[in-house]
Specification:
This protein has no helices and 11 strands. Strands 2, 4, 5, 6, 9, 10 and 11 form a 7-stranded mixed beta sheet that branches. A 4-stranded antiparallel beta sheet has the order 1-3-8-7, with no helix packed on it. The mean pLDDT is about 95. The protein has strands spanning about 5, 10-15, 20-25, 35-40, 45-50, 60, 70-75, 80-85, 90-100, 115, 120-125. The radius of gyration is 13 Å and the shape is globular. It is mostly beta strands.
Amino acid sequence: QVHLVESGGGLVQAGGSLRLSCVASGRTFNSRAMAWFRQAPGEEREFVATIGWTGDSTYYADSVKGRFTVSRVAAESTAYLQMNSVKPEDTAVYYCAAHTLLYSAGTSLPGQYHYWGQGTQVTVSS
C-alpha cells in the first residue's frame, strides 16, 4: 500500500512559481513511477508529468513542458513538481499518483495509477 499526501498549493500570480510536494508512506514508493495530474472545475483529469521509479526518466504534457519540472528524492519518499512561469490556465487541483505496478515506466494514463493523493489547489491570478 502507498499513502500519498500533497502540499504546497496556493494562490500565485501569473509568471510566479510554486513547488508542490507529494510525501509517500509505504515501503514501495521507491519502486513505483510517480505522476502528477490536475483537474480544473468542469474538466476531466489531465496528465501533467511523470517520473520513472529510478528518477532517470521524465515525461511532460506539452502544455507544461519547459515550465514544470518533476523530481523525486528517494531518501525522503517524496516527489516534487516545480512550477515556474505559471499561467491562469494552470489553475486546478493537482494530484500526485503512484503507479499500480512496481518497476514500471511512467505513463500519462490515469488508469495505470492505483494510488492517489487528496489533491492540492493551485490558483493562478492574472
